[in-house]
Amino acid sequence: MDIRRRAKQTKRSLETAARSARYEFFAAVARRHRCRTIFLGHHADDLVETFLMNLFRGTGAEGSRSIQTVSVHVVGGTELTVVRPLLSVWRGEIDEYIASAGLRFREDASNADLGPTRNRMRHKMIPLLEKEFGRGIRKAIWRAAAIAAEEDALLEGLLPAGLRASETLSVAQLRSQPIALQRRAIRRWLRAHAIADISFDLIEKVRRLLETEADVAKINLPGDRHARRRSGKLFIE
Amino acid sequence: MDIRRRAKQTKRSLETAARSARYEFFAAVARRHRCRTIFLGHHADDLVETFLMNLFRGTGAEGSRSIQTVSVHVVGGTELTVVRPLLSVWRGEIDEYIASAGLRFREDASNADLGPTRNRMRHKMIPLLEKEFGRGIRKAIWRAAAIAAEEDALLEGLLPAGLRASETLSVAQLRSQPIALQRRAIRRWLRAHAIADISFDLIEKVRRLLETEADVAKINLPGDRHARRRSGKLFIE
Predict the structure, then answer these.
(1) Measured between alpha carbons, how far is B131 from B126 in angstroms, rounded to an integer?
(2) Which residues from A are below 8 Å from B57, CB to CB?
(3) Are strands B70-75 and B218-221 parallel, antiparallel or unpaired?
């Protein structure tokens, strides 16, 4: 599959296009084998790296699902449950266990080709942060990520049914929610409409459609699409 | 005031002792002038530094109040509202405004003496992160902190009245809450009892008292104090 071309065609980042291709592959395998749960081997060091990368890129909640122990993804009509049972185990502990138990294992060839950002994070930034702030920072970041994942799940559960990624969003219902939930509802809604690369700024632009005195009733979205306010509802066209 | 001695006496970190001395000073001034609201000049760069420092030290929610636009502190019976109106303005923008308007300003002498951690963060780590991940990281971290502050306020509001820092905590009521709120309730409760240096691990230790099958009904707290479960309640002795 040519991910680069696909990213261009769908006007998404290379990384977003690669992730959706990966999940389509998982969903196809799951359908073929009639199983709906997939176990992935991400460990505590992966979690720390991903958390920092999301933080530095401002991905926010969008990226946080990749560091949850259990997450549900709907891919082409297939509901896929992804479980990551090793998120609280460090890479070093896994290596020790493998060595002590004399297990054979297979290293995924793509691990050697990490991509420049994760590579710099793993081999440069985290060792530097440890040197500056002490060996405890890995654990501190892991804890922050664990707390954030719990709070994230809780906040998702607070979204009223009417605001869960329906075709349109009610302006009045959205306005009645705290800002944190407005942002989440909008993020879900844009994602359900397959809007690419949803940033904090984009969400804040959509939130501005909620202001009563707003004379703007239409904003641009990536991929030549638009969000519009009409008759008390938000639409995507 | 000898902060170092005070930290030793109260078995708290130097930084925690310094913060409480600062807030006692604010409260004393507020009482003397019969005002209850204090404006502080922290700006967007301070917020980014504080957010990262809290993250790397695992301070969690404890430290997050220092980067909220409005926060309420009870100090020696005085309720103090702290407002930070400049948290969304960058230091460079403030400097430009001062220069263009020809304003006089006073640099706090203590700014030159930042403390080693904040100093390294400001002059070493953030420039390094910008070099590695691009100039956008300051803004990305600022946004993450802004989202976290909103979500933090929302989650605080979800705590049931019975779990808001009362003398004892009901085990049954605590158990009925999601983990994220259990952690918050315990944190508030320990803070209300002036327990020093509340860490994630300490909170998790207290949470373990909730397990039905726990044979441990008592755990150690800093400062030679204890949390104990008895007759369906948690106590501090």
Answers:
(1) 9
(2) 133, 136-137, 140
(3) unpaired
Longest C-alpha distance within chain A, in Å? 68
Tell me which chain A residues have a C-beta less than 8 angstroms from the C-beta of B125.
Answer: 128-129, 132
Q: Which two tokens stand for residue B159?
A: 């705590």
pLDDT digits (tens, 9 = 90+) for A108-123: 766 666 677 788 888 8
Q: How far is CA B139 from CA B39, B142, B182, in A?
A: 24, 5, 32
| Packing angle, helices A126-133 and A137-158, rounded to 10 | 110
Alpha helices in chain B (DSSP H): 3-9, 14-32, 44-57, 61-64, 91-101, 116-120, 126-133, 137-158, 171-175, 179-192, 200-208
Half-sphere exposure of A140 (CA within 13 A, CB side): 20
Beta strand B78-83 with A233-236: parallel, antiparallel or unpaired?
A: unpaired
Query: Which positions 192-231 of B are in contact with A (Cβ < 8 Å)?
Result: 200
CA A222 to CA A195: how far, in whole Å? 7
| Residue B155 forms contact with A (CB below 8 Å) | yes
CA A205 from chain centre, in angstroms, equals 20
Three-state DSSP class for B146? helix
pLDDT digits (tens, 9 = 90+) for B166-194: 789 999 999 999 888 998 899 889 988 87
Strand partners, B80: B73
Question: What is the token pair recorded at B42?
Answer: 């922290």
Distance (Å, rounded) from C-alpha B207 to C-alpha B7? 27
Whether the predicted pLDDT of A12 surpasses 80: no
- All residues of chain A having their beta carbon less than 8 Å from the beta carbon of residue B153 are 178, 180
For residue A59, name the pLDDT band (cuts at 50, 70, 90). low
β pairing state of B225-230 and B218-221: antiparallel
Enumerate the β-bridge partners of residue B154. Answer: none
- b/e per residue A43-68 (b: at least 16 CB within 10 A): bbbbbbbbbbbbbbbbbbbbbbbbbb
Buried b (16+ CB within 10 A) or exposed e, B90-104: beeebeeeeeeeeee
Q: Is the ipTM of this complex over 0.90?
A: no
Q: Check CB contact under 8 Å for A125 and B129.
A: yes
Report the half-sphere exposure of A183 (CA within 13 A, side-chain side).
22
What is the rounded end-to-end Cα distance, in angstroms, of chain A? Answer: 29
- pLDDT above 90 covers a percentage of chain A that reads 28
DSSP reduced 3-state for A17 = helix
- Does position A11 have pLDDT exceeding 80, yes or no? no
Model-level pTM greater than 0.90?
no
pLDDT (average), residues A15-38: 88
- E-state strands within A36-93: 37-39, 70-75, 78-83
